[in-house]
Design brief:
This protein is of the alpha+beta class and 405 residues long. It contains eleven helices and ten strands. Strands 1, 2, 3, 4, 5, 6, 7 and 8 form an eight-stranded mixed sheet that branches. A two-stranded antiparallel sheet has the order 9-10. A hairpin with a 2-residue loop joins strand 9 (290-291) and strand 10.
Length: 405
């Protein structure tokens, strides 16, 4: 279904309290049904995720107890017709990413990996049987997945630089290589692994069980961002999977790019959420913190920082809204999501820095509400395409000139 102006005719009636950061009331673009579901997700994150977020972040552990709640609310695979709980738009899915990001970017990243990347790869490249077998279980949180693209020596150049190989032997494939920064991989049941076919040099996709012989996932320790996300280094030595584990719709990197196109805009929305979370904490602090005999919110310099942050958030929401609308209309191209991701993450980085500045020394401790966002922003700024790579995608679109190495 394409979301049209007619289907949104009833969207003007408010059904959900507005975030103070939604200064231009973009939330009103949601349908009442979408707004109602956003309200449930907001409540869950405020009451069940927010109270434990700092604790798990400090311990570098993932709160697995949230997975059934996420599944119950339909956050896993909402774009997949076979498993989504109700008809929804890209705008709705983006707003959900914002809501999750404004409370805990680590949980939002888990959802992005499970729902967008792993399920997205199976939705785009899987056979009818694979989709029927895997996607419902993943939507219920019964089968956890990861997305194995990035490698120790291949990140931005994944289109040409993959070193993981796949060799067919009869009805099996033999995989060898390494992957890095693979979210969820330490506790997932399956990982979608992308490897170059030795026969034709093209990228293929495989659903690999994490208990396969020769497969190993080691947690990456000592991170300073997204500490609750369980990133792993994966090594594969003669890992054998059946031909039935190959995703037949993944025949080249162009097909992988289709999956990334599904998720990149939602990462931009998530970045807006991180900016919102930090800005909201700084605003609340500024109203309470007394200096020179009055709240610091009454100081001109503090108001200037708050307004700069609000401007960044508002501009980023506007760009994300339009990119999502283009997706709903079937008009979104790579450059649209690339610009949204590059812009929103840059403005996020600036906004969380302003929020930390407003809070002074208290901005570097977890319990004051900004430090975690300040740190997590650094990871979001880089993953799902760095600012530089997304800039080159947009630059190619507007100049017609290829500037990639």
């Amino acid at each position: 279904m394409t979301i049209t102006d007619e289907t949104r005719a009833d969207a003007a009636e408010p059904t959900l309290d507005h975030l103070v950061s939604d200064f231009y009331r973009y939330q009103d673009l949601l349908t009442p049904r979408e707004a109602e579901q956003v309200g449930r997700i907001r409540e869950m994150f405020e009451t069940r995720v927010k109270p434990i977020a700092n604790e798990y972040w400090a311990r570098a552990e993932f709160p697995k107890q949230v997975i059934p709640w996420l599944a119950e609310l339909g956050t896993l695979g909402p774009f997949v017709p076979e498993v989504r709980q109700f008809e929804n738009s890209a705008l709705y899915r983006g707003w959900v990413a914002l809501e999750m990001g404004r409370v805990d970017a680590s949980v939002a990243t888990f959802v992005g990996v499970q729902s967008g990347l792993a399920m997205g790869a199976i939705h785009v490249g899987g056979s009818i049987q694979q989709q029927a077998d895997l996607l419902p279980r993943m939507a219920r949180g019964e089968l956890l997945g990861a997305f194995g693209l990035t490698e120790p020596l291949s990140g931005s150049d994944s289109a040409r630089g993959l070193r993981t190989t796949a060799r067919r032997e009869g009805d099996e494939w033999v995989l060898n290589g390494a992957k890095r920064w693979i979210g969820n991989a330490t506790f997932s049941d399956v990982v979608v692994i992308f490897a170059k076919d030795e026969a034709d040099g093209q990228v293929k996709g495989f659903v690999v069980p994490t208990d396969a012989a020769g497969f190993r996932a080691d947690k990456i320790e000592d991170k300073i961002a997204l500490r609750s996300v369980q990133n792993a280094d994966i090594t594969m030595v003669d890992v054998r999977v059946a031909e039935s584990s190959r995703l037949p719709g993944i025949r080249s990197f162009k097909d992988v790019a289709t999956v990334l196109r599904l998720t990149r805009c939602e990462v931009a929305w998530q970045a807006v959420g991180v900016a919102v979370g930090a800005w909201e904490a700084a605003l609340a602090y500024a109203k309470e913190r007394q200096q020179f005999g009055k709240p610091i919110a009454s100081h001109q310099l503090i108001q200037d920082l708050l307004v700069r942050g609000l401007g960044n958030i508002t501009a980023s929401i506007a760009m994300c809204v339009r990119a999502s609308q283009l997706q709903d209309q079937g008009l979104q191209a790579d450059e649209h999501s690339a610009l949204a991701k590059a812009f929103a993450t840059a403005r996020m980085r600036e906004t969380v820095a302003h929020a930390r500045e407003i809070m002074g020394g208290n901005g570097i401790v977890l319990d004051k509400g900004v430090a975690r966002f300040f740190a997590d922003a650094e990871a979001i700024y880089s993953y799902e395409g760095t600012r530089e790579m997304n800039t080159l995608i947009v630059g190619r679109a507007i100049t017609g000139q290829q500037a990639f190495v």
